[in-house]
Every structure is written in C-alpha cells, then in structure tokens.
Recover the amino acids of this structure.
C-alpha cells in the first residue's frame, strides 16, 4: 500500500511537470506556427500595376536599409484586392483581426478601407493623391489620426505645359477615369482649373469597370486632340489597351507617371514611384522606432522625371524639341 506522503509527492510532481509543459508552450504562436517575435506588417494594395508595384518595392527596400528585413526582424504579408473595392475592406478587416503591428495601404481605396477598419493600428499610406479630401488625415502637416505616409499628387501644371510643348495645336484633352476613385475625381477638378491657363478644354469619360474602358474611350476619341491619363489605378492597369487604341487613331497620350509611358503613353513629367515608396518606408521606420503617425507630416516628392517614349513619338510623327531632348529620359516600346 502506497503511503499518503508518496501520493502527495507524486501529485506535486505531476503538477510541476504540467506547469513546466504549459510554460514551454506559452509563447505566442502565429497561425503559421511561428513564435511571434517579428513585427507583423500587412500590405494592402488596390491592384497590381507597375507604379504601385514599384512603390511597394521601394517601401520594402527602405525598411531593409534600416535593419527591418522581411523574414528577419519583420514579417510582411501582401494582399492584392484585384481592383475590387469590397475586397479592400475584407483585407483590412483581416489585418485588424490578426492584430498586425502596422498596415501599409497602397492607393486611396485601400487606405480608406484600412482607416475605416481601425483607428488604433498605425496605417502608412502611399500613392494617395489627397489624404485630406479622402478623409484620412486632418491636414498634411499634422495628420492627427493613426495615418501618415506619402502623397503621389502629380504636377498637372508641368504635365499640361509638356502637352502644349509637344502638341502645340491641342485644344481638347480627354480624360478617362474610374468614377469610384476619390483620387481621380480630385485630379479631374484640378485639371479643369489648370487647363484654363493653357487654353485647353477638358472632356471626361467615366467608367466603373475595366470592361467599360473600350466603349468609354471610343465615345470621346473623335472629340479630342490628346488623351491625359491621371494616376487612376483602373485606367493604369489597362494602359496597353488604351495606348493601342489611341495610337491607332493617332491620338497622343500624356501620362501622369513613368509607368504610363512605359505602357504606351507619349510622355510625362511625373514622380518616381519607387522613390515615393522608399520615402514611405523611411516614415514607417520612424513609427516602428516609436513615433506616432499623428505627429508625422504626410510628404510628397519634389523631384520629377521627364520621360519620352521614343517609339510612340515616331509612330505619331511628333518631333521632340531640342530643350526637351536635353532633359528627358527616352524609353522604347510599350504599344
């Protein structure tokens, strides 16, 4: 017969062993089975196209340059909404439920969905034309919310000046845009104001899906001398299609950024989205190091790039002035 003391000893041993096992398994574990010893960053992007992809790469590279390498100190999860607004909300809610440490939102729709989903997790934005009008921050200088980052506000004045230099006789400029994108509405309003200084009439045509673009373009192409493409994510994703049709009809395209020219626009004077993303990443590092988004100004890129598509210029028989040639980067292809 086992004595009471031995029974007590065995019970104590079992309890201690049990506590030891619990202790061994008490460290937080992610859904992938890894201990959560890395900073968790979720990236939500409205759609994949060259400009937004470049911004994302710049962001990741900036983090790495400051010691926050993906897979080591940080763990980055990328989600693409494929242009669907509802999906941006689903992605944002997923990141919030997973308690990400930071969210990078690329483009206005993704940023708005992230902000609607959380007022606590730091949200870093990029490729957002006007964060104030989009309801993300109080002012550019003092966001006063959980949002900061960079704006891709384009120098429309410089772009219209370039348009008139390359196509002096242009009077009517068409703009295709997604009616669901706040940033596109903002750009159109700015374009209409700036157009007055260049004796240009703006003719717009809105779409709600990529499938509507051919018909929408056809509805204005005979009424315009030039097509201007703003930083509209839907139109950017369809640039090869837009360029092919415009080139066929001998209509030059002035783009808002370099990726437009790489995909068949004639020219642009715009920002470098990789550099924009890199600048965004540096802001993110400030937040990771303890600063609050509400105290960090939303910034823009001051430097612009003058880019000409040499092949498109030849196809459209457009002579590039000497002063443009001296300062431009020339690229080939795209249509």
């Amino acid at each position: 017969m086992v004595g009471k003391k031995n029974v007590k000893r065995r019970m104590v041993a079992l309890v201690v062993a049990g506590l030891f096992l619990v202790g061994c398994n008490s460290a937080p574990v992610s859904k992938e089975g890894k201990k959560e010893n890395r900073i968790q960053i979720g990236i939500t992007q409205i759609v994949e196209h060259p400009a937004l992809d470049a911004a994302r790469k710049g962001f990741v590279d900036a983090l790495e340059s400051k010691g926050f390498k993906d897979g080591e100190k940080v763990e980055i999860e990328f989600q693409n909404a494929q242009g669907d607004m509802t999906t941006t909300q689903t992605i944002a809610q997923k990141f919030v439920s997973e308690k990400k440490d930071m969210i990078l939102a690329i483009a206005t729709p993704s940023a708005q969905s992230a902000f609607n989903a959380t007022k606590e997790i730091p949200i870093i934005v990029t490729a957002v034309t006007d964060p104030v009008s989009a309801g993300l921050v109080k002012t550019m200088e003092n966001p006063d919310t959980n949002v900061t980052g960079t704006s891709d506000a384009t120098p429309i004045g410089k772009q219209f000046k370039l348009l008139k230099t390359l196509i002096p006789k242009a009077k009517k400029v068409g703009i295709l845009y997604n009616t669901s994108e706040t940033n596109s509405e903002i750009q159109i309003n700015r374009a209409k104001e700036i157009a007055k200084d260049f004796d240009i009439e703006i003719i717009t045509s809105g779409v709600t899906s990529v499938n509507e673009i051919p018909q929408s373009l056809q509805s204005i192409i005979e009424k315009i001398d030039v097509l201007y493409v703003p930083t509209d994510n839907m139109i950017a994703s369809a640039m090869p299609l837009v360029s092919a049709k415009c080139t066929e009809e001998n209509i030059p395209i002035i783009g808002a950024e370099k990726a437009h020219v790489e995909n068949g626009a004639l020219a642009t004077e715009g920002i470098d989205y990789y550099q924009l993303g890199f600048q965004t990443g540096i802001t993110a590092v400030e937040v990771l190091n303890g600063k609050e988004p509400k105290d960090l100004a939303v910034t823009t890129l001051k430097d612009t790039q003058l880019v000409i598509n040499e092949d498109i210029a030849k196809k459209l028989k457009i002579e590039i002035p000497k002063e443009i040639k001296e300062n431009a980067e020339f690229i080939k292809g795209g249509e």
Notes: The chain is about 40% helix and 20% strand. The chain has two domains: 39-152+273-295, 156-270+304-331. The longest strand covers residues 39-45. Residues 156-270+304-331 form a domain with the Rossmann fold fold (CATH 3.40.50.2300).
